[in-house]
Amino acid sequence: MTGEGPGRIPLFDAFRAVNVFIVVSLHAAMTYMPYVPPWWYVIDDRKGLPFLIWVLLTDTFPMPALFFLSGYFAPASLLKRGRGAFLRDKVLRIGLPWIAGVLLFAPLFARASWRSLDLPLPERYGPFLSTIWLGPGYQQAHFWFLGVLLALFVLYALSGSVGGRRWVTVVPTTAMAFWWLTATAAFFLVSLRRDPNLWIPLGPLFFQPARIVSYLGAFWLGVRAWEDRWLQRPIGKRDLILSGLMALGSALALLAVTLSFPPGGGALAKFLQAAAHNGAALALGLLFLHLCRRFLPTGPSTLWRRLGEASYGIYWLHQMIAMPLATLLLPVDLSSGVKFALVLAGGWGISALLTEFVLRRLPLLKKIF
C-alpha cells in the first residue's frame, strides 16, 4: 500500500473522493450557516446552527488531507517519470485547469461576492474586471488550491531526487507533532496582525497566510509517509479507539474555543483558536485515514476507482453548479435542511455526471481530468 504499484488502491480512491465530497458539503453549508461571512457568494435567510457546527469542523481537515495525498504520490511519480516529464504532466493536469478556472470563472464568483456585500457594480463586465476583480475584489474562488498545489509540485521536483535518495527516517508521531506545532505557530502569529481568514495574492498564487504553512507541512507529511512506508503498518482496534478519542476531544475543543471567544480577542484567545483549529485538522484527518485503511476492501473496487477518478473534476466544477442552485432556491419556501440537501446533492451529483460524461470523454479534457 505504498502507491508504487500499477493498480489503483481503494483506500486512496476513497480517501480522495470522500474528502472532495466533504469540501462540497462545506461550501453548500456556508449558505445556510448563522454568522456567514458577508462576502459569501449566496446567503439565504433560512439558517440553522448545525450548519455552523459542520462548517467549523469541515473547514479544518479536508484541504490538508488533499495536500497530504498529493505529497504521498509525488515521490513515486517523480521517480517513474523523471523531472521534466513530471513537471510537464503537472502543468497540463493542474496548471491549465487552474488558469482556466481563474480567468474564466473566478471573476463571476468575485462579482457574486461584491453583490453580497451590497457594493456598487459597474453595469458592464469589462469595467468590473479591470476595476474590481483586478483590484480590491480579486479572488480565485476554489481554484486557489490548484495554484498552490502546482507550486508545491514544482518546488518538490526542483528539490527532490529522482534517484530514490532516502532521507533520515522520521517517526510518524514525531512528524505529526512537528506539523501541529508549526501550523499552530504560523496560524497564531498571522492572527496577531491579521484576520486568520484573510486571503492574499502572492504573485499568481492566492491563499490564506494563516493556513499556508499547514498545507506545506501536510504535503511534506505525505512525502515522508511514502518515503518511510508509514502506511504499511496495519491499523488495529487500539489505533481506531485512540484516534477516535483524539478526534472527539479536538472537535469539542474547537467548538468550545470558537463559540466562547469572539473574533478579535486577545493573544490567549488567538493562541487557543490556532491550537484548536490545527488540532482538529490533524485528529479528524487521522481518524478518517484510519477508518479508510481499516474498513475498506484491499482488492480492486470499481465503485471507488470511478469515484476517485472523478473527484478532480467534481472539485473543479462543484461551485459552478452548487452556487447557482442555491441562488435558484433563495425564494423557495423550504427549510434550510432541505435546501442544503438539494444544493449538496445537485452540486456533487451534477458535477459527477459532467465529469464522467464530458470532462473525461472529450479528447483534450480527458487527458487532464
Keywords:
single chain; 369 residues; mainly alpha; two-stranded antiparallel sheet; 13 helices; 2 strands; disordered N terminus
Question: Can you describe what's shown?
Answer:
- With 369 residues, the chain is mainly α.
- It has a domain at 1-59 and 301-369.
- The protein contains 13 helices and two strands; from the N terminus they run H-H-H-H-H-H-H-E-E-H-H-H-H-H-H.
- It has helices spanning 10-30, 49-58, 62-81, 83-116, 125-133, 144-159, 172-193, 209-227, 237-260, 267-295, 302-328, 336-359, 365-368, and strands at residues 200-202, 205-207.
- The protein has a two-stranded antiparallel sheet.
- Mean pLDDT is 92; it is low at 1-7.
Order of helices and strands: HHHHHHHEEHHHHHH
Number of strands: 2
Distance between the termini: 24 Å
Q: Say what oligomer this is.
A: single chain
Strand order of the largest sheet: 1-2
Q: Identify low-pLDDT runs.
A: 1-7
Q: Taking all residues together, what is the mean pLDDT? A: 92
Give the CA-based shape.
globular
* SS field, number of helical segments: 13
* Beta strand %: under 5%
Q: Report the C-alpha radius of gyration, rounded.
A: 21 Å
**Could you describe the largest sheet, including whether it forms a barrel?**
2 strands, antiparallel
Residues in helices, as a percent range: over 70%
